[in-house]
Amino acid sequence: MRIGALKTRGLATVLAGLSWLSYGFAQQTPAEITVLRYRAEQGDAKAQFALAMKYDEGDGVRQDLVEAMRWYLKAAEQGLAIAQVRLGAIYYNGDGVPQDTREGVRWWREAAGGGSNLAKFNLGNAYYQGAGVQQDYVQAYMWMDLTASHADRAGDKALAGLAVRSREAIAGKLTPEQIAEAQRLSREWKPKN
After folding, report:
1. CATH number at residue 178
2. I need a labelling partner for 109 at 20 to 30 A (CA). Which of 55, 78, 141, 191 fits?
């Protein structure tokens, strides 16, 4: 089984889009976009992320990836995990910027520390592939184990199931001692918050 079968970029974009809808910023009029911009300029991280998505997709504004990156970065620097995940995916995949897998992984670490299950999954995938980090199946297993358990508790059955299948595939590359080590690391891991 290939862990990266579902492109990280696609999954990050879908989940970022769902989060966008949950913030209540979808389908806005020009006046509402003006209010959104004002809130973003005042430092509202969720509004900054929503505005970034607008520029990223060209939804209600002229598509402008430079402007989207500016707002994603502002939201990510304030610790908004979904912005950190999206920024990580942009760098990791080179979407409109030079590809920088290490920078992508750095943002996913930040998001994982804030509790993002998608970031944990992406880190497991990065360690499995050895992209942005040195390939390490023990770390890959650990991140997939964390994703499986945390996503399941959060009610995200699709991501939890994907993580379980990925973890099983990784287990085939590990000794029983390495699996035990990965499980120990998973039990001991603590989020930043």
Report:
1. 1.25.40.10
2. 55
9/94 Cα distance (integer angstroms):
10
Query: Is residue 76 domain-resident?
Result: yes
For residue 109, is it within any domain?
A: yes
Q: pTM of the predicted model, to two decimals? A: 0.84
Instruction: Print pLDDT tens along the chain (193 aa).
Output: 333 333 444 444 444 444 444 454 456 788 889 999 999 999 999 999 999 999 999 998 999 999 999 999 999 999 999 999 999 999 999 998 999 999 999 999 999 999 999 999 999 999 999 999 999 999 999 999 999 999 999 999 999 999 999 999 999 999 999 999 999 999 999 988 6
| 93 part of a folded domain | yes
Taking a C-beta distance cutoff of 8 angstroms, is the pair 12, 120 a contact? no
Supply the DSSP string of the chain, one letter for each residue: --GGGS-HHHHHHHHHHHHHHHTT-SS--HHHHHHHHHHHHTT-HHHHHHHHHHHHHTSSS---HHHHHHHHHHHHHTT-HHHHHHHHHHHHHTSSS---HHHHHHHHHHHHHTT-HHHHHHHHHHHHHTSSS---HHHHHHHHHHHHHHHHHTT-HHHHHHHHHHHHHHHTTS-HHHHHHHHHHHHH-----
